[in-house]
Amino acid sequence: PSPLTEHGPAKIVAMCNQKGGVGKTTSTINLGAALAEYGRRVLLVDFDPQGALSVGLGVNPMELDLTVYNLLMERGLTADEVLLKTAVPGMDLLPSNIDLSAAEVQLVSEVARESALARALKPLLPDYDYVIIDCQPSLGLLTVNALTAAHSVIVPLECEFFALRGVALLTETIEKVCERLNPDLRLDGILATMYDSRTVHSREVLARVVEAFGEHVFHTVIGRTVRFPETTVAGEPITTYASNSVGAAAYRQLAREVLARCPVE
Ligand code: ADP
Ligand code: MG
């Protein structure tokens, strides 16, 4: 990918699947880090009250005074008061912790409750090329906020038997948000994760996913490797933890696909 002479306005990508454990957080960290390696300015948004994205970048969520929750709920607070730099040059983090679970309830009574995150991110867009939102495993109001803010959705799907279960509900939600709240939203891709080429089963699931989603499926497939759980413990992306690994190469390939599918104008 060619280097950039100027940055932004950022494309917002929601990493979304209401199923847990499919690779949303892992993909957010490593796609972000790979895009940053290619010279893109990246902001990662932890939008799961579990704070796994923050933990995966070496931040202890319990020790945070200000999180994305405060940015959503408090007028007058600016993003620089909440933003954290990560160890990856060019990649910043809006961290989160359990406080965010209150937002789901508190937002219900707000005006334009679905666009709180979009409003909070707007002033940041000129400073970045990509904003990636790590969604929580539900289709509740927080996830609808992420979809309302986003230009693009990436859906990680684990190459396991029940991978496609629930995906229809997800695509319906995306369509509804697109019709009612955010006509710019596009499903840019289905990302097959935890693929094990040694099993017939993984290959069959991948074939079914391609059959169901055709062109929407990224060519990049993320293999299953213990290297990813290791990176969580290390608190850094695989691109720095094991720069020459197959996993790092896969996320770099995904980054190139995202640059092509969802370019920053
Ligand atoms: P989600 O955010 O969708 O809940 P995570 O990214 O947290 O999913 O992944 C769930 C668990 O699976 C984590 O322990 C993570 O380290 C592990 N994991 C993620 N991707 C892979 C992979 N490609 N191979 C093996 N383990 C993985
Ligand atoms: Mg997660």
Overall SS class: alpha/beta
Number of domains: 1
Mean pLDDT: 95
Number of DSSP strands? 8
At a glance:
This protein has helices at about 25-35, 50-55, 70-75, 100-105, 115-120, 140-150, 165-180, 200-215, 225-235, 240, 245-260, and strands spanning about 10-15, 40-45, 85, 90-95, 130-135, 150-160, 185-195, 215-225. With about 260 residues, it is an alpha/beta fold. It has one domain: P-loop containing nucleotide triphosphate hydrolases (Rossmann fold), CATH 3.40.50.300.
Description of the structure:
- By secondary structure, the chain is an alpha/beta fold.
- The protein has a single domain (11-261), classed as Rossmann fold.
- Helices cover 39% and strands 18% of the residues.
- It is built from 11 helices and 8 strands.
- It has helices spanning 24-37, 52-56, 68-73, 100-106, 116-121, 141-149, 167-180, 200-213, 227-234, 238-241, 246-261, and strands at 11-15, 42-47, 84-85, 91-94, 130-135, 152-158, 186-195, 217-223.
- Helix 1 (24-37) crosses helix 11 (246-261).
- It is globular.
- The mean pLDDT is 95.
- Magnesium ion binds at residues 24-25, 48, 52, 134.
Topology:
Elements: E1 11-15, H1 24-37, E2 42-47, H2 52-56, H3 68-73, E3 84-85, E4 91-94, H4 100-106, H5 116-121, E5 130-135, H6 141-149, E6 152-158, H7 167-180, E7 186-195, H8 200-213, E8 217-223, H9 227-234, H10 238-241, H11 246-261
Parallel strand pairs: 1-5, 1-6, 2-4, 2-5, 6-7, 7-8
Antiparallel strand pairs: 3-4
The chain binds adenosine-5'-diphosphate (ADP) and magnesium ion (MG).
